[in-house]
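Hey L., structure's done. Input below.
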Amino acid sequence: MSPLVVKLGTSSLTGGTPELSRPRMADLVRQIAGLRARGRQVVLVSSGAIAAGREALGQPDLSKSIPAKQMLAAVGQPRLMEIWSGLFGIYELHTAQVLLTRADLDVRSRFLNARSTIWGLLRQGVLPIVNENDTVATEEIRVGDNDNLSALVANLIHADRLILLTDRDGLFTADPHRVPDAALIDRVDTPEIPPEMWLAAGGSGRQGVGGMRTKLEAADLARRAGAEVVITRSDLPDVLTRLESGERLGTVFTPAGTPPESFKRFVLASPAAGALTIDAGAAAALGRGGSLLPSGLLRVDGEFQRGASVRVLAEDGTELGRGLAAYDRADCARIAGIQSGEIEGALGYYYGDEVIHRDNLILLSQ
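Output:
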């Protein structure tokens, strides 16, 4: 099963107060621990670093400038992780901090490194807790809000579901604070989100930087990558447990695409920076759904970096497919023909057993 991404905004962690609410956080941890006990992989995208920084410094009266926010995030992020680590530790769950910027997700090599790290944590039973790296992010590389960051993370790890927990029941036909008879929109299954829904999306909350507009942007992005998206209240009793049990809560956005389709368009549209010629055994393994291992690699052509799109050729020059190389050109040449277990010895480091993982490969015959 693909992982679940859960996004918690500042309002969900504070309950609208100036400080983090430990009881609220503990209840959400209990629910996530229950999902993990049933075998569900979870990635948590958590806001709250700035709120934790304000709390630690005694709620100072500061400007709303980026440097001031970055200072508060620098103080608050380790405090936030300490709280999460302690709460998850009650259930003997290990946590890991993953700090990202848009540059980490826009540059393909960084994208692959981030994905490898998160998948590595999940394989070891560690719960990744993701936040934007506010202390170093400049305007040019900021995602800007954790709603869109959570959608980018869902796309990064091919999540099948994104749950955006907030202080509202979901998306309404109008701002319910201004229009008392505004109705909850319980389901969106059209290929495009209708214009009137964009108009209905309101402004930001009191403490977080994201509002309903950013949640709609996140839903649009994640559903195009093949994930179902749910927007609902964080303080509903057992909200995560109920959603994962199939109960309908909040606003549900059905997937508007599938990860393979999106990924195939990306790979085939990317100019091939090089070519890998493989032997007949490796070609047969690819046809059976396997990955390209170094033992089947005969020749490396072109100049390319890790994460670049490369052509995969049979011995007679026939193009079998396209894929994203897990190693750069020099590394591929050095490990050609060896066993996967010998990669680290040959290079001094290790990105995985595969030259191209099957999840990063498109066969042209398909």
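Residues 263-363 form a domain with the Archaeosine Trna-guanine Transglycosylase; Chain: A, domain 4 fold (CATH 2.30.130.10). Confidence is low (pLDDT under 50) at residues 203-210.

-- N.
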